[in-house]
Amino acid sequence: MAAGFHGVFPYVVSPVLASGEVDAKVLARLCDDLVAAGVHGLTPLGSTGEFAYLNWAQRKRVAEVAIEAARGRVPVVPGVAATTIADACMQAREYERLGASGILAILEAYFPLADEGVYAYFKAIAESVSIPVVLYTNPNFQRSDLSLPVIERLSRVPNIGYIKDASVNTGRLLSILNRVEGRMQVFAASSHVPACVMLLGGVGWMAGPACVAPRQSVALYELCRRGEWAAAMERQRPLWALNQAFAKYNLAACIKGALELQGYAVGAPLAPQAPLPPEGVDEVRRALAAIGALA
Question: Distances in Å between the alpha carbon of 177 and those of 3, 4, 100, 127?
Fold first, then answer.
């Protein structure tokens, strides 16, 4: 692989002004602060980045700002999402041209696809670029998902080296690791307990909560990496309360609401999504305070 991705990759939010323009100043500040907090990479245009609600110009600008803000200090792996192969490959090539370190490949499907169509989509993205590709699977939100046989086939494509699994089935992660036999590494999502995924053999997590708890997430990762599992679980327990709060509400609303509490004017999620309700704000505030993530 051209790069060894590992550790904590926050799913960066997409702050958009009322005019529709990406708020580059706020986004750049957030990215810079995340890097300073020790994260190992940045993933703009994931689920928390509201990729499904942004047009192409907005997506491109979000990726551009994140890449510029990182200044080569950490890899930036923007999400590519489309319903057609042609559109997905165009996005991937443009992100590579902008300086992305890798691609997070997401399948948007209106009509369901058979395994062969899913395989063709991800394989085409990988073959359109020379940088590493991370597969994204989220059966809760995707019309067509990656099956284990397709994942195994894709693990043999040279620059597909990672998969971020957002299912709630931790056993599936072990099945993936067994099937790919070291050809592909696994990243967890906020739907999994990160310490458990690291114990299974995962290399880190790509998740929205790391946006609001970067230092705490990095500390947890380092404990897992050293095999200090008892200490890791002590660190994991209060962090998991934050994930549980996010599970009750719209994810982008929770992360943006939490960032607002931390002083980042990222705004509300894009309409027609609802902002975090008052009771959600209170719950998120308590969760942040419990882990020392409020000023």
Answer: 19, 17, 26, 23
